[in-house]
Design goal:
By secondary structure, the protein is an alpha/beta fold. Helix content is about 30%, strand content about 40%. It has a single domain, classed as 3-Layer(aba) Sandwich (Rossmann fold). Strands 1, 2, 3, 4, 5, 6, 7, 8, 9, 10, 11, 12 and 13 form a 13-stranded mixed β-sheet that branches. Strand 9 and strand 10 (about 180-190) form a beta hairpin. The longest helix has 13 residues, at about 125-140. Bound molecules: S-adenosylmethionine (SAM). The site of S-adenosylmethionine has 22 residues, from helix 3.
Length: about 240
């Protein structure tokens, strides 16, 4: 299910020490959103990105969803009742509201392969479920509404030091590979001294460019632009 339950405790420590620059991501998203302020953040985790949106403009009307309860508990502590927080699985999400834009920072990402080539990465590795989840995103948007997906580097082995004597390391192992898609098993681990204090292994799927466009089209989305700062891709909902 790719829940983040076992690494929740160390998630913010990792993310706020060099993994993502939430302030910069939120500023770039904000430029494209303009006056559209009713936002759904999917796979929103502990609310680090939403927090930055509210710093830019407290009038953002944000709902955030995630399926990992422990991540949302931290989001609630961080954001209180300034946003709506729902525990939901993207595959079955039914929120009863429609939004101006849906933002994905991590649960789906565009992977920068170099030479202007991007692959779609998803935390939902089963094809039918992933398609259903993308259709659910579309269902929660107005026609013309935006679907913004962050850009990130390919998952690779790396290790670095975090405050408090914690060492983070990740391993990424390529698994099944088909013509237009492949899977990666990613292990996130946190060490203190010689002890592993938290770890989680997830399976992610990736689609080549042509497979991505097909998948997006089937879900009602067309590609609009790569943002100039190369932080995200914009798709828009073109059909009901
Ligand atoms: C890489 S984290 C990103 C969290 C957050 N967006 C951020 O930028 O810090 C991916 C998140 O997606 C959530 N997730 C994965 N699969 C999901 C699903 N099927 N439905 C809802 N959330 C999901 C995980 O629980 C996790 O919190």
């Amino acid at each position: 299910m790719n829940e983040y339950t076992d690494i929740t405790e160390y998630y913010d420590l990792l993310m706020t020490n060099g993994y993502y620059d939430y302030e910069s991501i939120a500023k770039s998203f904000h430029k494209v959103l303009g006056s559209q302020n009713k936002i759904l953040e999917v796979g929103a985790g502990t609310g680090l990105l939403t927090e930055q949106f509210l710093k830019i403009d407290p009038n953002y009307e944000i709902m955030m969803i995630d399926h990992t309860e422990s991540m949302l508990k931290i989001a609630k502590e961080r954001l209180g009742n300034r946003v709506k927080i729902r525990q939901a699985n993207l595959v079955s999400m039914e929120l009863g509201e429609v939004f101006d834009a849906v933002i994905s920072n991590g649960v789906w990402s565009m992977i920068d392969m170099g030479n202007n080539e991007y692959h779609l990465g998803t935390h939902i590795p089963q094809d039918e479920e992933n398609s259903q989840a993308l259709k659910n995103v579309s269902k929660h948007l107005h026609k013309g509404g935006l679907f913004l997906l962050n850009i990130q580097a390919p998952h690779k082995e790396k290790e670095f030091n975090l405050p408090g004597g914690i060492v983070y390391f990740q391993e990424a192992l390529k698994q099944e590979e088909e013509l237009e898609q492949y899977c990666i098993q990613k292990r996130y681990a946190f060490k203190k001294g010689n002890n592993i204090v938290a770890e989680q292994t997830c399976q992610y799927k990736f689609f080549t460019e042509s497979a991505t466009e097909k998948l997006m089209d089937e879900s009602g989305f067309k590609f609009k632009a790569v943002d100039p700062s190369k932080e995200f891709h914009t798709y828009y909902k073109y059909k009901d």
